[in-house]
Structure formats: C-alpha cells, structure tokens
Amino acid sequence: MNAVAARASPARSPWHQRCKARLATLPAVSRELLLWIGPFSALGIFAFHPALLVVGWRVYVIRAELAAELDRALPANARWWHALPALIVLLTAALLQGSHPADDLNRHLTAYRHGYDYHRIYPDFDARAPHVSMWFGFEWLVGWLHRALGLAWSAALVQLLALLAMLVAMQGALRRALADHPACALLAFCGTCLALQAVVLGRVQLSRPEIFFSAWALSALWLRPGAWLAIGVLMQPLYWLAPVYAVAALLLNTSWRTRIICATLVVLAAALFWLSYAGVEWPRYYALSIDWLRNRADGMGVSENATLLRIFNRPSCVVLVLFLVLYPHDNGPSPRNWPMALVLGAFLLPDQVRYASVVVPLLLVWAASRLPRKLGALAQPWVRVLLASLATWSLLASSSWPAPPRDLPSFASLTGKEYLLTPFGPSTFILPAQHPGLRVAPSLDFGGVPLSLQNLSGKLSHGVVDCEGLRAHSRLTHVVLQRLDHAPQCVTLQEASKGWMLWRINSHAHP
Hints:
Layout: H1 2-8, H2 15-25, H3 28-41, H4 51-61, H5 63-73, H6 84-96, H7 104-110, H8 136-177, H9 184-206, H10 209-219, H11 225-235, H12 256-277, H13 281-295, H14 315-326, H15 337-348, H16 356-370, H17 381-396, E1 419-421, H18 426-434, E2 439-441, H19 451-461, H20 467-471, E3 478-481, E4 491-497, E5 500-505
Parallel strand pairs: 1-2, 1-3
Antiparallel strand pairs: 3-5, 4-5
Helix pairs in contact: 3-4, 6-8, 6-9, 7-8, 7-18, 8-9, 8-10, 8-16, 9-16, 9-17, 10-16, 11-12, 14-16, 15-16
C-alpha cells in the first residue's frame, strides 16, 4: 500500500532546494537585491543599522537595471496598483485595533438598555429634550452588535465598517475623476491616503452616524441615481440630521431634473419616518440643539461644533487648497464643477468640523479632475514607487492616529446605582456604557444641563472640586476626575485606576 502511494505521489524536494530553484527563476537584479537586503532586514524592520548603508550602495550601483525591471513590473496603471486600497484597510485596521472610541459611539451601542430615552442616564438633561432617540435607526442596528459581541468588539466592528464605507466611497469618486488618466489607480490610492491622514481617519475612529452619511454623499459621484436614491431612503431612519446630506444629489451624473427629484424624495422619506416616529419633537430638536449651543458655559467648547477651519491645521489641506487656487486648468473652468461647488458651499456654510469628512474628499476629487491627463514624471517607475511609498508612510506617520485606550476610565467598584459628576469627555460616555443603570452628568450635549452643573463639570476638568456647588445638587453621589490639586473634606477617594480617580461625595457634604 505504501509503495503504491509513493509511486503515485513522488517525494517533494527539501524546502531549501525549492526556495533555491524559485530564486534562480528571478531576474538577476531582483535576486541580487534579495540576497543583499534579506539578511539585513532581519536586524529589525524599522531600526536603522549601519549595514543598511551597504544595501543602499548596492541599490545605487544597480540603479539602471533596477529602473528597467521596475518599468517592466510596474507599468503606470497596472492591475497591481488596484491591490493598494487593500493595503489601506490592513494598515488602518491594524493601527485602529484597540483604539476604543471615547465618546458618542458608546452611548449609541447601549441606548437599547434604557429604551432609547436619554433622560434615564442623564437625570439633569433638559426637560424639553424628547424621550425618544434622534439616532434611533443607528442605535437599533448597533445595539444588536453590542448584544452579540460586547462593547469593545462591537465598537471595533463599527469602526471597520466606517473605514470600509469611506474607502469604497473615496476610491469610487477618485477613480471616476481620474478615469482617463494613465495612472488612475495609483493616484486614487495616494489621494485616499491623503484624505485619511488629513481628517477622515479621526472621523472613522469616532464612527458616528455622520461618517456613514459622508460615504453615502461621496458615492453620488459614481453611483447610478437609482441605487444612490434607494440607499439614501433606507438610511434616513439612522440619524435626525440625515436630510442635510440630500444636497449631495447635485453630484449625480444625470440631469438637473433627476438630481432635484432624488434630493426631494430623500427629504420626503426622512420627514415621513421622523414625523411618524418622533412627531413634532423632530423639528423642535433642531431648535433645541441651537439653544444648547448658545447655553454652553464660556470657554467650554465641543470639538464636534468647532469651526471647519481646523482642517487647515493639517499642512496637506493647505497644500490642497493652494493647488485648487493656483494650478491652471487646461480647459478653463468646467461647467461640471458647478454642482460640486454648490455641494461644497452647502457643507461649508454651517462651519462645523463634523462635515470635514465630506469637504476634504470633495476637494481632493476636484483637484484630481484638474490634473493634466499625461504621465509626466510618473513615466519614471521609481517616481511611481516613491509616490506610493510616501503616501503609505504619510498614513502610518499621521498625527491624527488616536491614542491607545490606556487612558480611558474604568472602575471596578461601581455598582450601577451611582450618579456621577464627570468632566465632559470620555467618562461621560464610557462609564454608563460599562455599567448598566449608572447615571451621569452633564449629558450627551454639554449645553443641555443647567449652567451650575456645567461650571461644576468644567472645574473638574481643571482638577478642582467645588463643595459649595455639590451641595446644590444633592442627587450626585460621586465625582470622577483625572487630577485633583487639593482634596477637600466633602469627598473621599474610593478608587484610582488608569490615571482616573473616583471620589465619593460624603453624606455631610449635602444639607
């Protein structure tokens, strides 16, 4: 039996002989590079070593042969370049791993536990606020993920879905704008890396509903009108501000009449759902959000409502705008850019950074449409390799990567019956998600609580506990903070963990 099997399947050669045979089939220049670089790379991928100078010298010596081989292996728009977006997914997912979002996604994941009524976890929330959720569809969907996977894994999955949605949307938009460019795939990859590291990456990490609507808005540049409309109608129950993104219908590649019809149908679908679910609370929530914005204590801003000009803290965004202003277009102003200008104006008008994940990719698409349709320097293979490498490195080295979750609050002694006063930030959102039944102040919107609570919370951010202020809010049982300059007699330390402190309010502190 064994002899028959041996005749049927001849013995394989040892692994080192197979490797040697495959190495012999490589071009001479590739073989030489592998033999020189391979041993040195084992010294440490990202560590500098003097031996790398020897490798660099060998690369310089064979530079002519290397350029010729790259030209054969990497033509301007080879299929190989189309695999680069997968590299974005792998790199970003790896670097986002363990980066738990620090704010709203936590309350969205666990909203089902309190019946989508935020008054039950924010007792001092504005009485005018509705007792229904203005993110009902989104919270209903991610709530199922939370039930199945728990807090950490469900948050990671939502982040991955947000990344994939933005990647597909940006790749589709950039490839449509560069469809007639000889290096379309390579430039689309570089543009996606630029958008991610400039501003989109931070929005993906937060994974709020608007990142998915940003992806939907960008998809209008390449989706068919019917498909875009169907997706938009299905998405309207996710978010109370969903109709704002209907203006992206102007980007559809169709007639003006069809664009207006699509936008109108999306708005009607939103109105039909939200008026049937929340009634008059839905339009009133627009007014309430403005009131809360005005009601915030002086100096207590919220990053979500920060000016859109913050994107110019990124040098890449400055270069992008300068390119649009200064670079001459071969054919003069194109009428096809007017819809994009109108959509950009609509998202720039509120002047809020939450719309940066639409504005920056649209600026990139506009810039891509102005590039000359010729290879130029990209005709050189080493330039293409260098450009792809720099794009990847800019993504890896971006300062917009979120901090690891070691600084997020977590207290084992909490039972879920406490009412915590927190500095507005991670502890306001993460602790209620970790401990069912826990109540916190301020609330999901900093301006949605009385000014006295806002001032108490603001003082905690600066390491100050105001005992007089605590006496005016007798329902509070604990305070949470990261530093305390002086421990007053009205509080007692209960637990310290990961740079955070949980202080119990002494009973005699309340009248």
